[in-house]
Design goal:
The chain is an alpha+beta fold and 265 residues long. Among the domains are: 1-50, Uridine Diphospho-n-acetylenolpyruvylglucosamine Reductase, domain 2; 170-263, Enolase-like, domain 1 (2-Layer Sandwich), CATH 3.30.390. Helices cover 35% and strands 24% of the residues. It is built from 12 helices and 14 strands. A 5-stranded antiparallel β-sheet has the order 4-5-10-6-7. It is globular. The N and C termini lie far apart (48 Å).
């Protein structure tokens, strides 16, 4: 690990001001990805701006139409929230599937989204539910947020403050996980908004993406058999020691079918 300066602001305004003066600095949320990269000397920020004391970035607000979650809210808090479990049970269930107990008690929603790991779980929920990411004065639609491998629509120094998730009629998330890391080799989030359906995939490509063929089929009939026969092309999908592009393409259909089955229960 390289040397760095440590800062602990108590407000979003101070955090953004600090990062503006430290062009080689980085925000520190839960640290589940950044600290590991620093230990391996894959990342060498000049300054760390720790967001742990910025209380305004944490918390959960639920209304009839949406669930708003602060960027520094821990995965474990989302998973355990009675309000989230009532409004969007699939979102709470997804949070409970992330990593292990330590990761869930340290990792944050905002940190996960800003990092945009190709196998992270939260991007599937954000894209699948058509969420809106608040970053300063900007409101970024889910469909415009995830750009490429570890790349998002966030501008340099921009800080995620919260994410607003629309409440669907029904939804579910299913993933085929790596047995060691519990990252998604392939994960699929399905959300039915009453005639309009969104299907989001994580783990399969460089970043989360939607599956329009499945969305169209499920909008016509929200049932497992509607997606069971859809063949996903492996072009552009990830290829690593865990799974080939062809296997990931197969898993998208399998996980989508299971997600629909779960949503109907």
């Amino acid at each position: 690990m390289y040397a760095f300066q440590y800062h602990r602001p108590t407000s979003s305004k101070d955090a953004v001001s600090l990062i503006g003066k430290k062009p080689e600095g980085k925000y520190l949320a839960g640290g589940q990805s950044l600290v590991q990269a620093m230990k391996l000397r894959l990342s060498s920020p000049s300054d760390l701006i720790d967001l742990g004391s910025v209380k305004e970035l944490s918390g959960i607000k639920v209304s009839a139409a949406a669930v708003e979650i602060g960027a520094m809210t821990r995965h474990a808090e989302v998973a355990a929230s009675a309000e989230v479990n009532k409004a969007i049970p699939a979102l709470a269930a997804l949070a409970g599937m992330i990593g292990d107990r330590q990761v869930r008690h340290m990792g944050t929603l905002g940190g996960s989204l800003a990092n945009n790991d190709p196998a992270a779980d939260y991007p599937a929920a954000v894209l699948g539910l058509g969420a809106t990411v608040a970053a300063g004065k900007r409101k970024i639609e889910a469909d415009k947020f995830f750009k490429a491998l570890y790349e998002t629509a966030l501008e340099p120094g921009e800080l995620i403050s919260s994410v607003s998730f629309p409440v669907p009629k029904r939804a579910a998330y299913m993933k085929f996980k790596n047995p060691a890391s519990r990252f998604a080799i392939v994960g699929v989030f399905v959300a039915d908004f009453g005639g309009k359906v969104r299907v989001a995939v994580t783990g399969a490509g460089p970043c989360a993406f939607r599956q329009p063929d499945m969305e169209k089929a499920l909008a016509a009939k929200f049932a497992p058999e509607s997606v069971a026969g859809i063949k996903v092309k492996p072009d552009g999908l990830n290829n690593d020691l865990h799974a080939s592009p062809e296997y990931r393409a197969h898993l998208i259909t399998v996980m989508a079918k299971r997600a629909v089955e779960a949503a109907l229960k």
